[in-house]
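Practice set, problem 2.
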Amino acid sequence: MKKIGIFCDSVNGKTVALSKKIASAFGIGNEDMHNVSEITPENIESYGILLLGTSTGCEGNWHDDWEKAVEILKNMNLTGKTIALFGCGKSQPDGSISCTGIDKLYNELKQTGATLIGELSPDKGSAGTLSEEKKERLPGLAIDEADDDETNEMLVDQWTRTLNYNFNSHL
C-alpha cells in the first residue's frame, strides 16, 4: 500500500480528534499527521495517499490555512496520488450549513490529476450539506458535531473500511 499522510486543520479540536480516529484505523503514526499549514510540495511528494480534513466555520467557509494549501496543491501535478476528504461541521437551525468544507475542497482539487475517492451517498447518514452541483454524493466523510458519538463512530468505521478496501484492492 502507498504511504498515507493526513493533513487537517482544526479550530476547536474536533477535526484533529477525527483525524486521530482515522489514523488509528490505518495504523498511521504521528509523524504522518500534519497541520494543513505544513503543506509544501516536498512533503506532499512523500505520500501516495492524502487524507485531507477540514472544519467548516459558521459561515460555511473552511479554515484560512486551506487557501494557501489549495493553491500549492493546485499548482502540483498530483497524477498518481489518491485523495480522500473528511470534515467536521455544525448544522445550523435551518440545516443549511454542515460540512461544506469538504465540498469546497473537492471542487478545488478535482482538476489536479489526483484520484479522489471516499465519496458517500447522502442516505448513509453522513452529515454533509452539498453545493448545488454535487447533490448526488458527499465528497467524503462528513461528521456533524451535533450528532451523537455512536453515529459518528459508525460513520468513521464505515468510511475507513471502504477506503481500506480501495487501498488494498484497487490502488
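Problem 2, part (b): a different protein.
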Amino acid sequence: MEWLKKWDRGQTLVEKWIISWSIIGMTVVLLANVIARSFLGNSLTYAEEVGQFFLILVTFVGLSYCARNGRHLKMTAFVEMLPFRFRKYLVIFTTFSTSGLLFFLTYYGVRYTWFLYDVERVTPALRFPLYLIMLFVPLGLFFGAVQYAYEGYLNIRYANRMIDGTLAIFPEEKEGN
C-alpha cells in the first residue's frame, strides 16, 4: 500500500504543477491579448483558443485534485441535520455514485478523444491536434473517479469518522487552508 501512497503524492505534485502553470499561462496569454487589442488594435488570433486549452486543463485536472483534498462543491445543510449513521450511509452512497458516474463519463471521454484522433480534427487558429488537448478530459475524469472511489472506501473502513477527501485520513499530509 506504500507504493500507492507514493503514487498519490506524485500525482498530487503533477496536478498542482499543471493547475498552477495553466492559470499562469492563461493569465499571461489573455492579458497579452488585451494589451495587443488595446494598444495595437488587433487581437492575438490564438489567445481565445489557448485560454480554452488552459481552462480544460484546470477544470479536469482540478477535479481529481479537489476530490483528494475535499474541496469539491458540497450542499450539506440538509445532510448535517441527519444522524451520523444516516449521514455516513449517504456519504458512502454519494461518493460511490459520483465515482461510477465519472467512470462512465471517462468511457465516453475516451471514445470522443479517439474520434477526434480518427478524424484528425485540429484547432482553427493554431492547427494543433485537438485530441491532445481533449485527452485531459478522460484523464481528469478517471483520476477523479478513483479519488471518489477511494473516499468511499475510506468511509467504509473508518466507520466512526466522516472522511471528506482522501487526504482527510492523513491530516499531516493535508495542505494548509
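Answer key, part (b): The two ends are 27 Å apart (CA to CA). The mean pLDDT is 89.
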